[in-house]
Amino acid sequence: MHLLNKVVVSTLPAVPKPIVRYFASRYIAGEAIEDAVRCVRRLNAEGVCATMDVLGEDITNRDDAIASRNQSIEVLHSIARQKLDSNLSIKLTSLGLKLDLGFCTENVLKILEVAGQYDNFVRIDMEDSSCTADTIRVFREVRKQSSRVGIALQAYMRRSEDDVKLLVKDGANFRLCKGIYREPEIIAFQGRAEVQQNYTRLLDVMLTNKCYVGIATHDTVLIDAAYRMIRQRDVQRNEYEFQLLLGVRPELRKKLVRDGHKVRLYVPFGSHWYGYSVRRFNENPEIAGYVFKALFTRNA
After folding, report:
1. Residue 85 appears among annotated catalytic residues
2. Among the four 55, 79, 180, 191, which has the fewest Cβ within 10 Å?
3. Has 123 been annotated as catalytic?
4. Is residue 66 part of a domain?
5. What is the CATH number of the domain that holds 207?
6. Cβ pair 258, 22 in contact under 8 A
7. Domain for residue 274, yes or no?
8. Which of 175, 249, 253, 280 is catalytic?
9. Whole-structure pTM value
10. Mean pLDDT across the chain, nearest whole number?
11. Which domain holds residue 218?
12. pLDDT digits (tens, 9 = 90+) for 258-295
């Protein structure tokens, strides 16, 4: 399957956009917010909650960053109007992180202000290693003013253990994922086994310190390890959730729901779907393989 994944990804530059869109449609809700609303409503009917994300990152001017902020605020309004079980995920580079740290922080605070009006929650996503330190800095700053915010950390990053030990002191709300960006060995673990080992080590620290954790993985080894930790530590169902990507391993999603766990799906949408899709397929060929298989299965 590893070879098939690479073959699928290697053909993308020659594939017409409509076909790439067909592949991507399994894990992107659509281009408009109405598409995302329909998708989340369907998931809610299946007993699954969501986190909605407006695609777009690496904003290079302040006007675009403000427009991105306003789009995120509109998502929060839509969630409230439609009475959806969903929160919001944001990427700081879409809000001016690489332009000005203070400007980016102000944008996040304005989003959090609206989230507070609706008793909702905002997850700050983690991007590549050039953003890690500043992302954590912004998170810690805005958390002083709002508890309705969490952060994502990547288990393949060598620095993540130190970051977790720092953030658990603040009682942070985490999303723990493996990590998707291509990073050099000096920065990130490269082997699957060592990433898995670090993931379980970080999850153990989070759960031991009674932090809420979004266990974000499709890896059966890590799912099984999480099950064991939850049982051994008598972790309550309102102290964690499992998080998956839209369209990836739907059978796992259904199993987690059947087993009584809270499950949240990442629901991205927006006009920047093509760049996002190609980059995601290239960064993680395994996702391309999952989507390719999903095209030939009946269960979505």
Report:
1. no
2. 191
3. no
4. yes
5. 3.20.20.220
6. no
7. no
8. 175
9. 0.89
10. 89
11. 29-269
12. 999 999 999 999 877 776 666 666 655 665 555 555 54
